[in-house]
Amino acid sequence: MTRRYLSLVFSLTLIIVEMKTFGADGPFKAGAAISNITPPLGQNIVGGFSPSPSINVHDDLHARCLVLDDGKTRLALVVCDLLGLHRSVSDEARKIIQERSKIPPSHVLISATHTHSASSAMGQDRFQHEQKLDDYQQFVAQRIADGVQRAVNNLRPAQMAFGTAEVPEHVFNRRWFMQPGTVPPNPFGTTDLVKMNPGAGNPNLTEPAGPTDRTISFLAFREPEGGPISVFSAYSLHYVGGVGSGDISADYYGMYCGQLQRLLKADQQDPPFVALMANGTSGDINNINFRQPRPQQKPYEQMRYVAHDVAAKVYAAMQKLIYHGQVTLDARYREPILHWRHPTDEQLVWAKQTVAAGPKVERGADLSYIYAQRTLRMAEYPETTTVPVQALRIADVCIGTMPCEVFCEIGLEFKQRSAQQPAFMVELNHGYFGYLPTPRQHKLGGYETWLGTNRLEPEASDKLLAELLAMSAELKNSLGDK
Asked: Same structural domain for residues 251 and 369?
């Protein structure tokens, strides 16, 4: 046998041995912990076209960690207060977790919330597909692994319940059809059929280009007939924003977690209660009602309103839950091969001419210049890439994931078609591969489909969804084996 084959056999054997060390058919356990991942002041805050250095920390950023153990299998779920994270950060964190906590990489979920008030964990150049970790990325990976190990230390007998809360009033599709002739040209000099963020109260709006997902899905864990351990939630809301200038903030995600902890009277609990709010599928969703003008608000006012209302709705739904202690776990992880998008010959000519001419504005962002630069970067990409997708089964609940800003309708379709029910999705898991529109949305154009904002082939969503649905079916079949 070749050395590579022997290495693979050894690695697989090691994973099997490690998983068996967790015990056999023991009681279901859960443990949670958080790690602070706040960057030093002075690093750029990302989330817009003109990053600027942070000057203040309004509220700390965290990696919130939950570990589950059914006696045979362990899962770790981590949600980070970051815009996104480079795939290499997830790879490094899961490597450390496997070495230290004995949880195989396929059984660890690491997602980003998409707060727009954090420093970048996607490297100095997020368009560089293969990269060496910088200091902050290495710090985040280590802190994720620390949090998972501390959650392992906090494992204790647990019960679980699944719930949902209907919260339609905070989610709006941000892509709009408009009156003929009112969609402005895009940075490439052509005109799209839809406009992203057309302006609140714009009189030229006709109808949104897609749906919203009004449902918060959540898993609640408690000690048997006792205190809360953790709540893992997912809501398809891009972010809220409205922060102070130069502030680092976890956005509404962090505020929600703190408020839910207070509502549960668990803020003085030891071991600590940990809430997690993952981003569902919000690539085309935000918190702006474009049908009416947006009122002037103080910094953090809207964010706090949304966070507290969402927490109250989840808390109310938790009062009706029925918990059970017979919980089995399983996971599937794959890396299908997809094509990168590449510019056409005409786009390359335009990009080279635009870059050569330089930016046309002294202040702010020249979008044509920015997208010309991105177009030239996309021309350097290889033909294909592997894309990590993952599905977890927790009792009878299936969580599907993709490493993109996923359009809402994709998440809704997964919820409906998943073989394992109930089901929901989490985006920005194990990397950042840009926006993920459906093929129909690609044809409409708009910011989320522009080359550079969108990097995977137009059929990528169909291919990734097919993988997730197949994994869901496998997880359903494995339920009978437990």
From this structure: no
Q: Is residue 471 part of a domain?
A: no
Please state the domain count of the chain.
2
Phi, psi of 139, deg, nearest 5? -60, -45
Sign of the torsion angle spanned by Cα atoms 37, 41, 46, 48: positive
Contact 161, 322 (CB under 8 A): yes
Query: What are 465-474's pLDDT values in tens digits?
Result: 999 999 999 9
Could you read off the pLDDT of 188-238 as tens digits, one per residue? 999 999 999 999 999 999 999 999 999 999 999 999 989 999 999 999 999
Q: Are 151 and 66 in contact (CB under 8 A)?
A: yes
Helices in 110-194 by DSSP H: which ranges?
A: 135-153
Q: What is the CA radius of gyration of the chain?
A: 22
Do 155 and 103 contact (CB within 8 A), yes or no? no
Question: Are 31 and 142 part of one and the same domain?
Answer: yes
Whether the pLDDT of residue 19 is over 80: the answer is no
Query: Which neighbouring-strand residues pair with 75?
Result: 68
Q: Report pLDDT for 135.
A: 96
Helix pair angle (367-379, 345-357), 10° resolution: 130
Question: Per 3-state DSSP, what percentage of the chain is helix, strand, and coil (rounded to 5)?
Answer: 30, 25, 40
Are 148 and 64 in contact by the 8 Å Cβ rule? The answer is: no
Total Cβ atoms within 10 A of residue 203: 8
Name the pLDDT band for 361 (thresholds 50, 70, 90).
Answer: confident
* Helix pair angle (135-153, 87-101), 10° resolution: 40
Q: Are residues 430 and 367 in the same domain?
A: no
CA distance 159 to 323: 6
- How far the first Cα of the chain sits from its last, in Å, is 34
Range of the structural domain that residue 358 is part of = 343-376
- Asked if residue 1 belongs to a domain, the reply is no
Do residues 55 and 356 lie in contact, with contact meaning Cβ atoms separated by under 8 Å?
no
Q: In the block, which residue shows the tokens 């050395």?
A: 3
How many whole angstroms from its chain centre is CA 163?
Answer: 20
pLDDT digit string, tens, across residues 124-145: 777 776 778 999 999 999 999 9
